[in-house]
Specification:
Length: about 160
């Protein structure tokens, strides 16, 4: 589980910050992303109300988050996954923003919903998954690493 601690924007290894819509939950990432991915699965669509989601995968130890109100960050246990292992979808209970997801299948990583990053300029997808349920109106995103469903066992989303 990610640990809660003070966000220190002056840290030397500062890489990125983000927050939920209402700002109650804020986070800082201090390490390099493992990869970034567009997910077209119907669970991601439903949980975000969008046609696809954008995620960046980091080591859990590189994510520090804080909340200005107690218990702002809540977790929905998504049981309807391909693997059958629950996916923990962490969100702000006040504004509903999905912040990150974790899974016991790949315990050392966290999948951060990239739309919550403060800086959107540098983000681009390295992978695309669950392309078999991709919305037909979406154009080719120019991603070569594409899978019909999840990327195999350990798929975070
Ligand atoms: Zn919020
Ligand atoms: Zn998904």
């Amino acid at each position: 589980m990610a640990e809660s601690m003070q966000v220190d924007a002056g840290s030397e290894d500062f890489k990125g910050t983000g927050q939920c819509l209402c700002g109650t939950v804020q986070y800082m990432i201090s390490g390099e992303p493992i990869y970034s991915v567009v997910c077209h699965c119907c669970n991601c669509r439903r949980s975000t109300g969008t046609s696809f989601v954008t995620n960046t995968i980091f080591l859990k130890k590189d994510l520090k988050w804080q909340q200005s109100k107690d218990d702002a960050l809540r977790c929905f246990e998504d049981m309807h996954t391909d693997s059958g292992t629950k996916l923990m979808r962490h969100f702000c209970q006040f504004c509903g923003s999905p912040i990150f997801a974790t899974t016991p299948l790949w315990d050392e990583i966290v999948s951060v919903f990239a739309g919550t990053l403060n800086d959107q300029q540098a983000w681009k997808p390295m992978k695309e998954q669950y392309c078999d349920s991709k919305a037909p109106w979406l154009p080719d995103l120019g991603v070569t690493d594409r899978t019909c469903r999840g990327p195999g066992s350990g798929a975070p989303l």
